[in-house]
Amino acid sequence: MRATKFYNSRVKHEHFLPRDYVMRKLEVSQSQSVGKQSPKWKEPYRIKKKVAPSTYTLETLDGKTIPRSWNISNLRKFYR
């Protein structure tokens, strides 16, 4: 109980609003080699809508919708 209370007092829950800019984590297949200097995030995208409490639909800056939804753990805020 005390550990839970301590954790919850310090954790910052991330949430995004529609039209916020985000970066998404790159999907890496096993055939691709990833080194220390390779990019880990692909950017920028815009939040189109919230599908579930931690799932979002993205769109490119041109307005094209990305075909699948993304979990918040795969997104990071992009500052312009």
Which descriptors would you attach to this protein?
globular, 80 residues, 5 strands, mainly beta, SH3 type barrels, five-stranded antiparallel β-sheet
How would you sum up this structure, described in words?
- With 80 residues, the protein is mainly beta.
- It has a single domain, classed as SH3 type barrels (Roll).
- Helices cover 11% and strands 40% of the residues.
- It has one helix and five strands, in the order H-E-E-E-E-E.
- It has one helix spanning 2-10; strands spanning 21-25, 41-52, 55-59, 65-71, 75-77.
- It has a five-stranded antiparallel β-sheet, with no helix packed on it.
- The chain is globular, with a radius of gyration of 15 Å.
- It starts with a helix and ends with a strand.
- The mean pLDDT is 89.
Major beta sheet summary: 5 strands, antiparallel
Oligomeric state of the chains in view: single chain
Low-confidence stretches: none
What is the overall shape? Answer: globular
Mean pLDDT: 89
Q: What is the tally of helical segments?
A: 1
Number of strands: 5
> Any idea what the CATH architecture is?
Roll
Top CATH class: Mainly Beta
